[in-house]
Amino acid sequence: MKSFRPERVASVVQQVVSEAIAQKLSDPRIEPMTSVTRVEVTHDLEHAKVFVSVMGDEAVQRRTMQGLKSAAGLVQKLLAGELPIRQCPHLSFHLDESIKRAAETYRLIDEAMAEIRRDEASRGSVKDGRMMGESGGEDA
């Protein structure tokens, strides 16, 4: 049962931080399209790494991370009110670029598939042209 405790705490951290970003933090640096992607809590429950995805360019991401780091104390206070444990985990915010990398991967796959389709289409039209000419010659 003890091994599930960090996961339960992580779930509460994710919920509280997500709600804080959406409704309670008024820092203009924090991009509204920021979402908590995952939370990792140490087994001793002293530290929680909060991974966030920020929609926008690098400047928007940097500003948002600065805003979140500035708001960490307030978010930790909100979290302490929700967790029935003696010591609230220390929060640290980290940019999660996995969504950005996945989108880039999909874009590259789409690009490669479009190129393959263009190549097949150009080869197919050449083949069809030859076949039509050859079959025309056979019928004559």
Task: Tell me what you see in this structure.
- Helix content is 61%, strand content 16%.
- The chain has 140 residues and is of the alpha+beta class.
- The protein folds into two domains: 2-96, GMP Synthetase, Chain A, domain 3 (2-Layer Sandwich); 97-140.
- A hairpin with a 5-residue loop joins strand 1 (34-41) and strand 2.
- The chain is elongated, with a radius of gyration of 26 Å.
- Mean pLDDT is 87; it is low at 136-140.
What's the SSE blueprint?
Elements: H1 5-24, E1 34-41, E2 47-54, H2 58-70, H3 72-82, E3 90-95, H4 98-139
Parallel strand pairs: 2-3
Antiparallel strand pairs: 1-2
Shape descriptor: elongated
As a whole number of angstroms, the C-alpha radius of gyration is 26 Å
The helicity comes to 55-70%
Please tally the helical runs, counting DSSP H or I stretches of 4 or more residues.
4
CATH level-3 fold name of the largest domain: GMP Synthetase, Chain A, domain 3
Tell me which CATH architecture of the largest domain applies here. Answer: 2-Layer Sandwich
CATH class of the largest domain: Alpha Beta
